[in-house]
């Protein structure tokens, strides 16, 4: 930033360096003396004070400038807005303030034709990315453009924010984008190698975590770029051995997040996190098996997941899942109220692998009573207080107890065997297929 600040006058120079360092008093003094300074820019890059404040995260100065009714979308030499610079440098408070002041998220720079969303994804600032997406969701952009179209917006060379995040090894951004409806199979025009998908670019960047995310959201390992290469070949070429092992079309397929299911798309945040965590754990088990015996020892399980395995099988007073008998029930099916663990819930939902070509997907039913699943919620942890205070709830401890006994007895021993044959994900992964061998035995039963 600093380099572009050659001085036209000492005042200008003084103002810009005060903005850069966050010297509020000096900035105020300069503007008092000469209010027109507000509209001056640096000589070469034509950065305004607003650009400089945004790029340097000087929130107080930014607030001062915006109060004086400066256009939040003022452009520099490269047609970059202050919002783009704030997103590039990860200055989240500035991003938020600019968005609140109505900064336009649909501006394109003249360097690569990129938007603020591209900047946030490229530089890996997931908080900024999230803030921009939330604004897009609730603003006119969603109405006039469509939210999904905004998430998949392309730069001058056909790259979506997901392409950039995958190429730059930004797994958190990859996750947020996929979760917001970014298309995992979109191919670029000219960015990277023509026809590259996000998976090709992740293979090139060599990020195992990005590849894991993309695969779990249904990215296709067999899709070819314009020169006919699948992502596996790209990973090999760039000597990312572990990535190549996962991308090898002959290695086990991962479980894919069942996004087309209605009740999955309507999950509340808490239940969603539980299930996503279960999905990633299942896929990590699968990775271990793929990488076992190869030259690539498994990188220590993702550090970003805080305590993923810590509290799963603890709490002896909680109810054990009646399907696997290994995990605690954490998910409740509504409206019937049956409970199971996140892993088994996921196995149930991933039974039908989402396939874009088959429009109609048979939604799974409750494995205990076969009723339609209206909603999945996080099961309430039972505490001794429940007995007295649970009256208003449609799921009192009394009915829960009877439900539990029903889980064990009434369902008939034959289908129950099928259920327990699913076992835990660890075992399923161990078979190397990543698929649930016993699934048809019970799901297809009348
Ligand atoms: Zn279970
Ligand atoms: Zn049920």
From TrEMBL:
<dbReference type="InterPro" id="IPR036770">
    <property type="entry name" value="Ankyrin_rpt-contain_sf"/>
</dbReference>
<feature type="coiled-coil region">
    <location>
        <begin position="261"/>
        <end position="292"/>
    </location>
</feature>
<feature type="repeat" description="ANK">
    <location>
        <begin position="78"/>
        <end position="110"/>
    </location>
</feature>
<dbReference type="Pfam" id="PF24921">
    <property type="entry name" value="RING_XB3-XBAT31"/>
</dbReference>
<feature type="region of interest" description="Disordered">
    <location>
        <begin position="392"/>
        <end position="446"/>
    </location>
</feature>
<feature type="domain" description="RING-type">
    <location>
        <begin position="321"/>
        <end position="370"/>
    </location>
</feature>
<keyword id="KW-0862">Zinc</keyword>
<comment type="pathway">
    <text>Protein modification; protein ubiquitination.</text>
</comment>
<keyword id="KW-0863">Zinc-finger</keyword>
<dbReference type="GO" id="GO:0008270">
    <property type="term" value="F:zinc ion binding"/>
</dbReference>
<dbReference type="InterPro" id="IPR013083">
    <property type="entry name" value="Znf_RING/FYVE/PHD"/>
</dbReference>
<keyword id="KW-0040">ANK repeat</keyword>
<keyword id="KW-0833">Ubl conjugation pathway</keyword>
<keyword id="KW-0175">Coiled coil</keyword>
<protein>
    <recommendedName>
        <fullName>RING-type E3 ubiquitin transferase</fullName>
        <ecNumber>2.3.2.27</ecNumber>
    </recommendedName>
</protein>
<dbReference type="GO" id="GO:0061630">
    <property type="term" value="F:ubiquitin protein ligase activity"/>
</dbReference>
<dbReference type="InterPro" id="IPR001841">
    <property type="entry name" value="Znf_RING"/>
</dbReference>
<keyword id="KW-0479">Metal-binding</keyword>
<dbReference type="Pfam" id="PF12796">
    <property type="entry name" value="Ank_2"/>
</dbReference>
<feature type="repeat" description="ANK">
    <location>
        <begin position="194"/>
        <end position="226"/>
    </location>
</feature>
<dbReference type="Pfam" id="PF00023">
    <property type="entry name" value="Ank"/>
</dbReference>
<feature type="repeat" description="ANK">
    <location>
        <begin position="157"/>
        <end position="182"/>
    </location>
</feature>
<dbReference type="InterPro" id="IPR002110">
    <property type="entry name" value="Ankyrin_rpt"/>
</dbReference>
<dbReference type="InterPro" id="IPR056760">
    <property type="entry name" value="RING_XB3-like"/>
</dbReference>
<feature type="compositionally biased region" description="Polar residues">
    <location>
        <begin position="407"/>
        <end position="417"/>
    </location>
</feature>
<keyword id="KW-0677">Repeat</keyword>
<feature type="repeat" description="ANK">
    <location>
        <begin position="45"/>
        <end position="77"/>
    </location>
</feature>
<keyword id="KW-0808">Transferase</keyword>
């Amino acid at each position: 930033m600093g380099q572009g600040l050659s001085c036209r006058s000492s005042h200008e120079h003084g103002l810009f360096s005060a903005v850069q360092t966050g010297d509020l008093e000096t900035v105020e003094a300069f503007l008092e003396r000469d209010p027109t300074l507000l509209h001056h820019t640096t000589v070469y890059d034509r950065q305004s004070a607003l650009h400089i404040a945004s790029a340097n995260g000087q929130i107080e100065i930014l607030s001062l400038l915006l109060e004086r009714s400066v256009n939040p979308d003022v452009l520099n030499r490269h047609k970059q807005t202050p919002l783009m610079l704030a997103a590039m440098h990860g200055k989240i408070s500035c991003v938020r303030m600019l968005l609140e002041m109505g900064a336009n998220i649909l501006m394109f720079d003249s360097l690569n034709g990129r938007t603020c969303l591209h900047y946030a994804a490229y530089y890996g600032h997931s908080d900024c990315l999230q803030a921009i997406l939330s604004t897009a969701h609730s603003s006119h952009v969603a109405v006039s453009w469509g939210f999904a179209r905004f998430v998949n917006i392309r730069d001058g060379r056909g790259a979506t924010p997901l392409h950039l995040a995958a190429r730059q090894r930004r797994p958190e951004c990859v996750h947020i984008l996929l979760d917001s409806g970014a298309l995992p199979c979109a191919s670029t025009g000219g960015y990277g190698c023509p026809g590259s998908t996000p998976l090709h670019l992740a293979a090139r960047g060599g990020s195992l975590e990005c590849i894991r995310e993309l695969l779990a959201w249904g990215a296709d390992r067999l899709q070819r770029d314009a020169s006919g290469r699948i992502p596996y070949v790209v990973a090999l070429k760039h000597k990312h051995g572990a990535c190549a092992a996962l991308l090898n079309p002959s290695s086990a397929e991962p479980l894919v997040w069942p996004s087309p299911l209605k009740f999955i798309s309507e999950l509340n945040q808490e239940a969603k996190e539980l299930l996503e965590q279960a999905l990633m754990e299942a896929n990590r088990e699968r990775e271990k098996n793929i990488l076992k015996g190869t030259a690539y020892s498994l990188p220590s399980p993702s550090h970003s997941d805080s305590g993923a395995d810590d509290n799963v099988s603890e709490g002896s007073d909680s109810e054990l899942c009646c399907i696997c008998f290994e995990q605690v029930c954490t998910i409740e099916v509504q409206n019937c109220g049956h409970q199971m663990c996140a892993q088994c819930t996921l196995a149930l939902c991933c039974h039908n692998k989402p396939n874009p070509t088959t429009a109609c997907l048979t939604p799974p039913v409750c494995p205990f009573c076969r009723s339609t699943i209206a909603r999945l919620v996080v099961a309430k942890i039972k505490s001794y207080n429940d007995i007295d205070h649970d009256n208003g709830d449609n799921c009192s401890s009394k009915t829960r107890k009877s439900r539990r006994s029903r889980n064990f007895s009434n369902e008939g021993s034959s289908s129950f065997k099928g259920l327990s044959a699913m076992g835990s994900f660890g075992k399923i992964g161990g078979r190397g297929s990543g698929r649930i061998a016993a699934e048809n035995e019970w799901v297809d039963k009348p």
